[in-house]
Design goal:
The chain has helices at about 1-20, 80-90, 125-140, 155-165, 180-185, 225-235, 260-270, and strands at about 40, 45-50, 60-65, 95-100, 145-150, 170-175, 210-215, 240-245. The chain has about 270 residues and is of the alpha/beta class. The longest helix has 21 residues, at about 1-20.
Amino acid sequence: MREICGVLRRLAAGSALALAISLPVHAAPCPRDDPATRVTGQAECIGFRIYRAADAGAAPVLVIVIHGDIVGGGVATSHYPVAEAIARTHADVVVAALLRPGYSDGAGRASTGASHGHIDNYSAINVDELAGAIAKLKAHHKARRGIVVGFSGGGAFAALLIGRHPGLLDDAVVIACPCDIKAWRATRPGRPWTRSESPIDYVDRVPVTTRVAVITGSADWLTPPWLAENYAARLAARGVAARAEIVPGATHTSVFRHQTILQAVGALLAPP
């Protein structure tokens, strides 16, 4: 009898463990939305920093800037100088530098949700969380248009946003993007990625009215130029105004600081 009871206890413990593993992580929405610092996307609290041009006006263009993966951990701040430069250089804009789910900036801003160790996290859930936050920011600022600027993994998010949520944003600057996840991971060490959505799979959903600048450095060994060229070519083949620009000598990280980024944003701020 004791042996049978022991087996039953082990089975019950195993079932409880399996149930615990299968249960989803509880979402953590914002206690309250604050359009200056954080809003709930779908179910997670998305943090951001706002930069406003001195003459943004009553119906500005909302520019969204999204950071990269930061593999190995660390804070997400590389997109802040870019967002600030856009607001300082261009008129009639409000710029929101978003923190992707599971990331923080080390200065009190953070987004809830799962970054999965800062790798393989371009999931549908995470993309939809940012989309929900962007929709709220557009409404709050009464934005007449929206542009997304994303670097590296943030470039993948930018490309996914215009494809998975057509019409949410009008134009995009996609920088150093692993825009074909399967082909990209085949060239990299480690396991295939299984959680991430691939921007190349959403090309047919990008509205033909969208303008897309796809930018990569010629010396980028992490996301080589062919990724940008292939993604831009696929968009252009179906009538999207997309172009690939390869910045001579720029590396994976230095391209995000290159003047080409501000020039691309400026071109998209002009009416179509």
